[in-house]
Amino acid sequence: EQTSDATRVPEGSRKADFPGLAGNWAYLDTAATAQKPQVVIDAIARAYGADYATVHRGVYERSATMTMRYEAARETVARFIHAASPGEVVFVRGATEGINLVAQSWGQRLVAGDRVLLSALEHHSNIVPWQMLRDRTGIEIDVAPLTDDGRIDEDALEALLTPRTKLVAIAHVSNVLGGVADVARIARAAHAVGALLLVDGCQAAARLTIDVQAMGADFYVFSGHKLYGPTGIGVLWGRADLLDTMPPVQGGGAMIETVTFAATTYASPPQRFEAGTPAIAEVIGLAAAIDYVESIGLDAIHAHETALVAAARAALGRINSVTLFGPQDSAGILSFAIRGVHPHDIGTILDESGVAIRAGHHCAQPLMAVLGVPATARASFGIYNDLDDVARLAAGIERVTRIFGAVTADI
Ligand code: PMP
């Protein structure tokens, strides 16, 4: 049988780099969180072990060295996303905290009647902070609809822009459907009405080359744990001139210039937004993850995952009663349903065959309403997956349809 270009997967499995993948299971839940390569685990262990000390405060050599590594990690992140300078990189707990920070800090300048434009496919973390801001200030939230194949409808989004629109906040890659937004086009349209663009890059950062300047974003957020790095660490990137004008939202150590009981002055960004002792080892682990990902190359990763999704679409598409959601060229993520079978049952039966997928609303309940389903089953791919994982997924799905076909016949 001939293998088409669409299903050809680059040679060489990387499973051996990932201790979490031992035990012959097909891990297809990377969109929830990625497994960690040994180099990342080693970097974290070293940071907590032989290298451990605090940052920014110590006068002793160990602390100075740790501070250097911590700030070198900021440079790694800046290079990775093509930021103009490391000072634009704020370390936060994750994408969720990054979006909340923008809503709570930059959001203070919004007044009743100002508008924030989201899309129908957003993760709850890019919906709820704006609703909380709405409750505090009386802003309005607009929602751009989707195309039939589950992408943000950019024409419709542009039609919703008004002079009162102050911010457009959208996912670069949908965590449910995998569609890639045309962020450069959306940035141009937002800027034309004087609005800013916040991009939720949680799924994109591990799948696409990110150039925050080329895309014209104003804020970009992502989480370390979806990028083969640690939990508890993420990035808020913001344009320097914007961060400069933003008030802090947490007060404490490390974010100040001088403190008296009469008045306190704040440090410049990024320190202004990093109150307290930071997640030192996690920052260093994140830099190790970025080094690992860059050693493979984002273009190679994207090609690899696109090929796996194409193979999965082809294999599942042949199975009667399977519905596939999302665009044909989705980036590493494939949501699907089986007629008459709840996604949780699909997940449970697949688990019996050693195939781990996610079943649920994926923190995107408004999108489930658009799709007209309470939940989907979702297979998501990473740099360690291969065609064997796709074959196991397809075999598992066939088993699900047999089991439920049999149940139906028995009734
Ligand atoms: N946005 C998207 C698109 C996501 O996929 C996720 C994680 N599922 C988040 C935001 C939130 O990320 P975290 O939970 O790491 O803060």
Tell me what you see in this structure:
Its cofactor is pyridoxal 5'-phosphate. It is an enzyme of class 2 (transferase). Belongs to the class-V pyridoxal-phosphate-dependent aminotransferase family. Csd subfamily. Keywords: Pyridoxal phosphate, Transferase. Pfam families: Aminotran_5. With 411 residues, the protein is α/β, with parallel strands linked by helices. It has two domains: 5-30 and 298-410, Aspartate Aminotransferase, domain 1 (Alpha-Beta Complex); 40-295, 3-Layer(aba) Sandwich (Aspartate Aminotransferase, domain 2), CATH 3.40.640. Helices cover 38% and strands 16% of the residues. It contains 13 helices and 15 strands. The protein has a seven-stranded mixed sheet, with helices on both faces. Strands 11-12-15-14 form a four-stranded antiparallel sheet, covered by helices on one side. A two-stranded parallel sheet has the order 1-13. Helix 2 (61-80) crosses helix 9, helix 10 (298-317) runs parallel beside helix 13 (387-410) and helix 11 (343-352) packs across helix 13. It starts with 25 loop residues before the first strand and ends with a helix. 50% of the residues are buried. The model is unreliable at 1-11 (pLDDT under 50). The protein binds 4'-deoxy-4'-aminopyridoxal-5'-phosphate (PMP). The site of 4'-deoxy-4'-aminopyridoxal-5'-phosphate has 13 residues, from helix 3.
Topology diagram in text:
Elements: E1 26-27, H1 38-48, H2 61-80, E2 89-92, H3 95-104, E3 115-119, H4 128-137, E4 140-144, H5 154-160, E5 165-171, H6 183-192, E6 196-200, H7 212-215, E7 219-223, E8 234-238, H8 240-244, E9 256-259, E10 264-266, H9 280-296, H10 298-317, E11 322-324, E12 333-338, H11 343-352, E13 355-356, E14 358-360, H12 365-371, E15 376-380, H13 387-410
Parallel strand pairs: 1-13, 3-4, 3-5, 5-6, 6-7
Antiparallel strand pairs: 2-8, 7-8, 9-10, 11-12, 12-15, 14-15
Helix pairs in contact: 1-9, 2-9, 10-13, 11-13
Bound molecules: 4'-deoxy-4'-aminopyridoxal-5'-phosphate.
